[in-house]
Amino acid sequence: MIRKNEYIDNAYKGMPKPKMQPRNRLPVSLFLIGAIALLSSCSSANPTDASRTTVSDEPVHLTFYARQTISEEDFKLIFTEPLKKRYPHLTLEKIDAAKSKIEDLIAAGQTPDIIFTYGADLKSLEPLHFLSDQTPFIKQQNIDINRFDPVVVSAAKDEKGLYALPLAVQFNALYYNKDIFDKFGVPYPKDGMTWDDTIELAKKVTKMQDGVQYRGLDPESLNRMSFSKSLTYLDAKTEKAAIGSAEWRKMFEMMYAIYNIPGNKPQDLKKSTSVSASLDAFAKEKVVAMWPSVNVLTNLIEAEKQGVNWDMVQYPSYKESPNVYGTVDAHFMLVTSTSKHQAEAMKVIALATSDEVQTISAKQTGRFTPLASDQVKKQFMAGNPGLNGKHMDAIFKSKTAPPQQFTKYEGGARNFAYNALVDYVEGKVDLNTMIRNTEEAINQYVVTQKAGEKK
């Protein structure tokens, strides 16, 4: 979820503080026994010592490295306030990736205890030696994995183990500006539309009037649209570019068709492919009629105060995959393999994923829970007056596409594809040439990255 100009999920409002259960105090001997058992179960790939697994009431300061943006207000609501009540001997400091590079922290010997990031970024942590199977710590804290949506959890797993637990998961919806449709006398979008339906509707509201160019549809990003097909830029097994497939070709052609509706192409196409820029065009500039994207409800509640008359319908689907929207797009937390306080760090994660805190998060902050609990799901933005009359049922009408297997080079490969798409849409290169040149660039990028890792 985006809040104001933050990139994803940052919308927390103050609420009554959660009533936490009293902390159980166990004999130190039991903790020592648990630590020894854990040591015996861990492999050499996940080194653990007693100092990391033994839990006591001694003060412990933990660091939380946010590669996924989270506001100070949100952090306080979900993490520090519940932690202060349940485990007063634990303190948690947030370090924003935008302000502190992880490489600098490593060089200074200040590696974080917890990392907060998005699913596609998990594998990029592997070269930093932060990833490890979290199962021993999950078991130690008696976290029931069955409480989570299994599809969401599967996005953080492979044959080596489970690397993280989810804090929140995105949904997709098609947001639309009712005033633009009213201006041109065109019926509003409806649930169940395919992408072809959506593009045809966009043509009817892409018009110039009173010196303003209204754009019928901003697709938000190539990444978002490809998620419904569970596509990746790299083959996870071969680590070779995968954008030459028939599905990717259809994706590029659809993006071309959308942007080349006469009058629908933004002036700065490269800039507009960022989520924040395309959101601004919809919610601030008020020139986009339809915007398919992630959970931005808190942004739109604020935008309505500035005159944006919006509503939402089901996210468009591909005709061969009806009622399917994006793949698992979740925000995950993990205990680093280098943390000296792994057990304490997992206590933080356990608390943040408890029913109690997840209910607060869903109701007050607009984060969609990764828990399977219908009771918690029903609390999503419950009672928020800014959503009165909105078609909230649209959120629940689609199912998630299967999660992808990402490589640690996925982010870099995506950047090459984004830049190539701009050239293709603007007619600077044909599709075949664009795909060939981009695959060559991606493959060379991977070779260069691997060579650097060997040094």
CATH superfamily placement of the largest domain: Periplasmic binding protein-like II
Overall 3D geometry?
globular
CATH fold assignment of the largest domain: D-Maltodextrin-Binding Protein, domain 2
CATH class label of the largest domain: Alpha Beta
CATH architecture of the largest domain: 3-Layer(aba) Sandwich
Number of domains: 2
Mean pLDDT: 87
Distance between the termini: 39 Å
Main sheet: strands, sense, barrel? 5 strands, mixed
**What's the total number of strands?**
14
Compute the CA-based radius of gyration: 23 Å
Can you tell me the residue ranges where pLDDT is under 50 for at least 5 consecutive residues? 1-54
Helix content: 25-40%
Question: How many H/I helical runs?
Answer: 18
Describe this structure in words.
The chain has 455 residues and is of the alpha/beta class. The chain folds into two domains: 192 residues, Periplasmic binding protein-like II (D-Maltodextrin-Binding Protein, domain 2); 206 residues, Periplasmic binding protein-like II (D-Maltodextrin-Binding Protein, domain 2, 3-Layer(aba) Sandwich), CATH 3.40.190.10. 38% of the residues lie in helices and 15% in strands. It contains 18 helices and 14 strands. It has a five-stranded mixed beta sheet. Strands 8-9-10-7-11 form a five-stranded mixed beta sheet. Strand 1, helix 3 and strand 2 form a beta-alpha-beta unit. Helix 3 runs antiparallel to helix 15 and helix 17 runs antiparallel to helix 18. The protein starts with 27 loop residues before the first helix and ends with a helix. It comes from Paenibacillus allorhizosphaerae. Belongs to the bacterial solute-binding protein 1 family. This is Extracellular solute-binding protein. InterPro entries: Bact_solute-bd_prot1, SBP, SBP_1_CS. Keywords: Cell membrane, Lipoprotein, Membrane, Palmitate, Signal, Transport.
